[in-house]
Description:
Elements: H1 3-21, H2 25-31, E1 37-42, H3 49-52, E2 60-65, H4 75-87, E3 92-98, H5 102-107, H6 116-119, H7 121-129, H8 131-135, H9 140-161, H10 163-170, E4 176-182, E5 189-191
Parallel strand pairs: 1-2, 1-3, 3-4
Antiparallel strand pairs: 4-5
The chain binds cobalt (II) ion.
Protein name: Carbonic anhydrase
Binding site for Zn(2+): 42, 44, 98, 101
Function: Reversible hydration of carbon dioxide.
Amino acid sequence: MPKIRQLIANNSAWAKRMLEQDxxxxxxxxxxxxxxYLWIGCSDSRVPxxxxxxxxxxxxxxxxxxxxxxxxxxxxxxxxxxxxxxTLKVKHILVVGHYGCGGVRAATxxxxxxxxxxxxxxxxxIYREHHKELEAITDEKDRIDRLCExxxxxxxxxxxxxxxxxQAWDRGQDLAIHGWVYSIExxxxxxxxxxxxxxxxxxxxxxxxx
Length: 210
Ligand code: CO
């Protein structure tokens, strides 16, 4: 069987299995989606959002891009965040990076990768901001892994800086932003313990509270 036909065959076997487990599974999904979580992760094929946190279809709203970034002019990501926060009213946003991220690594290199160098540019700025800590790490893999952590922490802050998130907090909406890093080596997520639930940790210039 040609490879692509195999995917269609896999799909029909999956749908059949789901119906065997719960005859109303698809009917319930059609009726509504009420996920409590928005996942913002890397596009890397080794970090499948739903599987990593054991969630079924309908339980996780997902946005993925190269190196799990939240950029203030990225209407794709911000549209997802706005829909998740204002319409779905998710209670948690999970920013999930991963160790050994090729995007983060590429941002540390001087060779030209093409368009993606522009996309990854903000990670160079994170490196610059933390260059003393990073350059004290002699092992290159460890240095990239630390930059993966710092990138997640930065993206949690970037989310908190959006008008979307701050307006939700002002409405009294229960919304927490978490920063995690997933390890492909052992399948486990590490909580960076940088969860934010209000704008208190943001420098004044980033406040939208008038
Ligand atoms: Co990655």
